[in-house]
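Q: Predict the assembly, please.
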Amino acid sequence: MSNGGWTGTILRVDLTTGRISKEPLNMEWAESFVGGRGLAARYLYEEMDPAADALGPDNKMIFATGPMTGTNASTSSRYMVVTKGALTNAITTSNSGGHWGPELKFAGYDMLIVEGRAPVPSYISICDGDVRICSAEHLWGKTVWETDDIVREESGQHDTVVTCIGPAGENLVRFAAIVNDRHRAAGRSGVGAVMGSKNLKAIAVRGTGGVPIADPQKFMSAMWEMKSKLVEHPVTGEGLAAYGTAVLVNIINESGALPTNNHQVSQLEGADNISGETLADTRLVANKACFGCTIACGRVSQLPGEAQDKFTVTTRPHNWKIAVEGPEYENAWAMGADCGINDLDALIKANAMCNELGMDPISFGATLAAAMELYESGAVTDEQTGMQLNFGSGEALVAMTEKAAYREGFGDELAEGSKRMTAKFDRPEFFMGVRGQEFPAYDARAIQGMGLGYATSNRGACHLKSYTVAPEILGIPEKMDPAVTEGKAEITKIFQDATCTVDASGLCLFLTFGVGLDEIQPQLEAVTGISYTVPELLEVGERVWNIERMWNQRAGFTGKDDTLPKRLLEDPIPDGPTKGEVNRLGEMLPEYYELRGWNAEGEPTKEKLASLGLA
Amino acid sequence: MAKSLRIIPEKCTGCMQCELACSWVQTGMFQPSRSLIRVNIFDEQASYAPYTCFQCDEAWCMTACPVNAISIDADTGAKVVGDANCVGCGLCTIACPFGTVFYNPDTQKAFKCDLCDGNPACAVACPTGAIEYTESESADWLGGWAEKVNESYLQSIEGGNAA
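A: Predicted assembly structure:
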């Protein structure tokens, strides 16, 4: 029995009936799935029919912390939103930092399960044991930042932390995000649209309790050891702190792996204009950390006077005078390189608007990139778009950010995501993604392992489920050749499993640039009082990966969905250092299935499930 | 020369490691609501500022205490609440002009920074060096900061008049 880490209590709110209940955490599941992404997947598998409509009342949303969340282990800020994605119809696991996850823990809950649909716009207010469903009719239509201010004011407590949706979530934009602390987002797969479909505007939390530790002495020593390693590592100690995640722009561009113009080419001219280095030189005003984070990769930028009036968004002019967060690497890529844009000010504005209006900048940027290709190929006209949508247009980017969130004009097409949009305009081949979700910022033709990772990712194309960019480009922990397929099935499986474990712990995946399960294991053990070996932790990850896979099977996905768009499989990169490359998924996928203990159709075998305790 | 806590807000990233460390000392749990150092986050100004008792010379908390429960630690110079004497009336929390003396609802007594007997956990935990525990002539380092704020305020008024 554990005496640390977990609070041992789940909060359940049924929005249809208004019933609020507190129930004991299933400790058997907690031990075998740890928490966060893993534990939430176990509950979702048990409780919900995966075939249910993502935007219907039968979809459930689980906001889950891990046993490390709220401790002083570095990067202990994370919580996961696990639900059926509005963009993908697959299980999704969207992760966010900031202060909301720890605050839920301090209020006394490991997880919040939200069910049903509120009859009127509502928000949930949690202050320790006092939980209420409040009217949000006065908040409907408000931006994330306005909602944050008003809900905190209404709580009467300075330290209340708010997670909420903006207009994009209300308008069921397929890639709407849930945003906490104004700028931190459970960003991808449309979790914000699911929240909007439930008429749930916000969840405010204030917690005054604490997180106990089972073995304090052991924990302190392991915790300091990991912090020292993070400081000493060049990525977590220097690169991310100095330049943020956008330090990758120049590295990935020079590697010929920066997808540009909707993946038509793999290098952006003038990429340095949107790099972390240029950001630090010209627009950065502070580094900002999430709760407990000793890395502080978060960027805070501000437009100088002359840049404030660039691009014609006339609403909310105050926003261009204040400090805003971002842009991060993924956003700089999606709204930058993928749209052929190398103007940093356009990215700062569009990124801030995505945070303010509650939208995933990756899927939005990538969908705009697909729209630009539709436009340049003549599949949509000026009349339909209402403005010129050429690659490279910062003006189009900033204008369309607002239009998509409000579903105004052509924004209504963008709001469906690029798979639905390109299908509607008869160019499905322009959709660059997997399981309905747009790719992130790495060209799978230039980095073979990423192709396998994208194709098999349970929540659709994602860089955060098996970041083999680390070995293939950055040489962490050891350099692998990005152009070969040999060994990629094995490394992808290991990365997927290990990532599940990190996501279950409540820690941030970014610490794995500098440390691994070897450093996490003693901390997790000391926090929970439950002994885990490193192989057992990898098995936890494998268990999580398989239960997500089984969930998706019940939602209707098969091995046929483990694929990539034709452009990546058949159209070679036309130029640059990776010229001539395609992704050779076929060389990796069968080996991957075999290593996973799945059959040739990509289904987990009975033996595999039994060995993981899932049969 | 006595050591004192010195805070350099420009170096703070808002990570809350100081609050976590302080609450651990206070309660044996990670419980920021019981931390005696508080980080204020001003998003629109990109400003994050840890804030705690800097053991000021005037010590209004001591003056206000009706039962002489607050004394000066001979080694560190910290103003320390003696739990045995404190009756939990809260007058010190009102008297402190900086808002850095708190009431603990669990113990029903006042609590404030006691410099951890000369090894402040917040300074040890801070990953960016925004909290230092160093020798200084006077604990009143806020004076210079206040002067700076005042100066920029006067400048902004002058600028306003010029316009």
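Chain A touches chain B at residues 70-72, 99, 102, 106, 159, 182-183, 207-213, 216, 227, 231, 285-294, 296, 298, 300, 302, 322-323 (CB under 8 Å). The mean pLDDT of chain A is 97.
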